[in-house]
Structure formats: C-alpha cells, structure tokens
Amino acid sequence: MNSHHTIRTRGALVASGHVPASVKDEVRRNLMAARRERRDVFSGILGYEHTVIPHIENALLARHDFILLGLRGQAKTRILRQLVGLLDEWVPVVEGCEINDDPLQPVCRRCRRLAAEHGDDLPVRWLYREERYHEKLATPDVTIADLIGDIDPIKATRDRLTFGDEEVLHFGIVPRTHRGIFALNELPDLQPRIQVGLLNIMEEKDFQIRGIPVRLPIDVLMVFSANPEDYTNRGNIITPLKDRIASQILTHYPETVEVARRITDQEAWTDRGLEVRIPEWYRDLVEQVAFEARESEFVDQKSGVSARLAIAAYENLLSNLERRALTTGDRPVLPRIADLQAILPAVSGKIELVYEGEQQGPDAVARHVIGQAVKTTFHRFFPKTTREPKRRRPAGGEAAADEGTDVYHRITSWFSGAKRVEISDSMPQAAYVAALRQVDGLEEVAQRYLPCDDPADVPLVMELVLEGLYQSSFVAKETVERSTFYSDMLMRMMQGMGEE
After folding, report:
1. What Rg value do the Cα atoms of the chain yield, rounded?
2. What is the residue range of 339's domain?
3. Model pTM?
4. Same domain, yes or no, for 175 and 315?
C-alpha cells in the first residue's frame, strides 16, 4: 500500500517528511529523473526528437512558462497534454479546498483559517496527477470570471459574509489549477483585456474581481499554443504577456515522407480485418499528397496543411479497398491508382485555398494535388518524359534522368491506334489486370524500372506508368463517374475540337 493512503491529517503529513515544492521544481525534478533513466517523456510525438522536444525540455529545466507556435495539425495540444506525466503521481491537498492548497503552505483565506483552527488535525486528501492538469480553448467570449473568478452571492448569503470578503469568491479555472499545469490553446483569440488579467496573475500574483483586490500567490505552470495565422487574422498576443512567456518554441510538419508515414501508421485506424497488401512506394505516394499540398500555389500556406490530411486519406483509401473486397471477393485486395479518387474528401476538406484556388474549386485543387503526388512518385522511379532526343547518360547519373521518351514509344504508339483502356476502382482484379495487359510495352516498362517481389503487384506499377504519362501530358485521360479511360492525346484533342 502506498504511504499516502495512510496519511489523512496535517500532523501525519509533517511526520512523513513531506516538503512542499513548487510545480515547476516538481516538473524539473521528474524530467531530470526521466533523462537519467532514458525514459521517453513525449511518447508518440514523431519527427520532433532533434528539434522541438529539446527546446521544450530546456524550457522546463529552466522553470519557464512557454508557448508552442505552429500551424494546425502539428501535435501542439498532444504535447501539452503529455506534460501531466512530469507531475508527481499523488500530492496532498487540504480536504475540501477549491484550489488544491498544500496543507503545509495554504494560500487561500479559507484554508489558512482552517489550518489555524485545526492545527495538526487539518484533514488531508490526495490528488492524482491527472486532476492537476486543466486546459482551456481561448475564444473571444472567454471572460475574466471563466479564467480567474467572480463573486458568488449565494456563498456570501449562506456564510453571512460581505462581498468584500475573499471567501465569497468563486474561483475560475486558473486558480483551480493551483499546484498544477494550465494549458491555454489558441492564445491570440483571447481578448486583450482578458490577457491583461492573465498577465497580472502570472506576474504580480494578484487580480481584481469587481473592484475587490485579491492577492493570491498561486503556483501554476502556464503553457500556451498558438497558430501564427491568428496573429493577423483573429487577434494578437499583447506585448507584456508575450514578454512574460519565457520560451517561444516553433513546431513544424514532418520533414520527410518516412516520418510522415510513421505518424499516419500510428494514428490511422487500420484494423479492418482486411487482407490487404500495400507496396512501400504506394504508401509513400499517399503521404506525398500532403507534401504536394504544402507546396501548391492554390493552397493557403499560411493556414497550413494538417498531418490529419494524410491520416484521413489513408483511412479513406482502406475503406475503398474494403468496399471492393466486399463486392468482388478478391483476397488479398490490392490498391490501385484509381483508388486515389477515394481520398478526395480527405484532401478537399483539409486545405484552405487562396483566390486562385477558390476560382478552381476545392475538388479540382484536390485532384491537382493528388496528380502532382503521382507525378512526383512516377519520376522517382521512371525516366523523365521529355520530347527531346535521347541523350547519353553521364557517369554516375540517375537512370531516370536521361532516357528521353524512347522507353514509352511502344506505349504511346499503341494508344495512337485509336485504342483506349478502361480502369475503375470497382472492377474485379482479373478484369483490371486484363485491361492493363492490352497496352503494348506497358508491362515491360513497369518491370524494368520498378521491379516487384510479388508478380501480383505488377499491374499497380503498370497503372502508375499510365497515370504518370497522363500527368506528363503524353496520354489523355477522361473520368466518367468512377471509371477512368486512358487514350491517345492527339485523338482526345481532336475530339475536343469537334465537340466545340
């Protein structure tokens, strides 16, 4: 049995050797212990090991209040919530205290009065670490009463106290986080006058409620999050408060596709009971969509592209495979380039568009971004599609750089014979394979540049070649409902002129 289960009075607490400590000292002590024992303090936070996390640990070791500044979907809130793991598992508090006063160092008037009345018999209870973390989303309608407190007329009437008595106060969320961690998300959304009240309680340890001055030396680790976009679009952090927040730490999106994949694999719901096999390069292609969105001229980069885009896209992709498996009975079910249309809702719903993008529309921009991801993946493995003559490959150069369009000649010539290929995300695997094998030279190119350990993966690579040629304007494509038709570019242009 833990010792705290037997300590129920202030006298027993003193006899146990309990020494009060500030919450920042407590966090610092526990962080130092974690570092010595090489324990991971921030579990599941990927890609920040050498950038963000060292800055956070430095701030905590320095006993700083800090702010995480970054775009949406950069794990800011998750990091703040994991700080609770640096608190002691249990701490003693005065029984019935609204602000969790330490029995040996009470700060509120009621607890000081009770300590004087009861002495060593002052009742003690134990508070678990999860109860010492409070979080608030800053919105324009947040008031001083919400954060700091207000007069409680019922309490004044019941206890026959004047409104000037400190014991008639109903404490807000910040005093109630005394001896704990208070996190305020989206700080710039807080009205400046409310920020001033927050500054006073941080700096001066006093505040006024309806003209009643209250000095309350509460002990809180204050942590904040903010989006840089908010500084101009919705609000600002007042300069004195920004100056009081000792450390400003910048977060960022995954810097590599590999890290992005690990995040998606960790967060996405994949346990579908589905027999599925997805090649490594195809998984990278799904992640590449988010990277392309973060570079797109149609997407508002100040707003950011959340890591949730890739997570939702991968879940939608798996759902599409699941639908096909239920319909066709294919086992295992393999992905297709055509399945990428299933991720459109995840992409279009998570990007903010600039004016040019609004003119195109979210669906068109999402298709463009997905197409760019396919093109990037295609050029990663296959020769560049260029209409220049074939050039001699330099020593040490990449195979994909200098082979011109000769490797695709048989493919494009096949289409020029007024032939076309129909692909859909609903057709059975056998029909899908048969449709692709019609194209002369397609399988040879696919196996030459992106060899597959399993022959069943070859058709997917063949479809990648067709889509890559379309994205490079070497073949035409038309989408009708959920079917895709690849055909000759020149023939498609002539048809378009005839329709006009």
Report:
1. 31
2. 253-381
3. 0.87
4. no
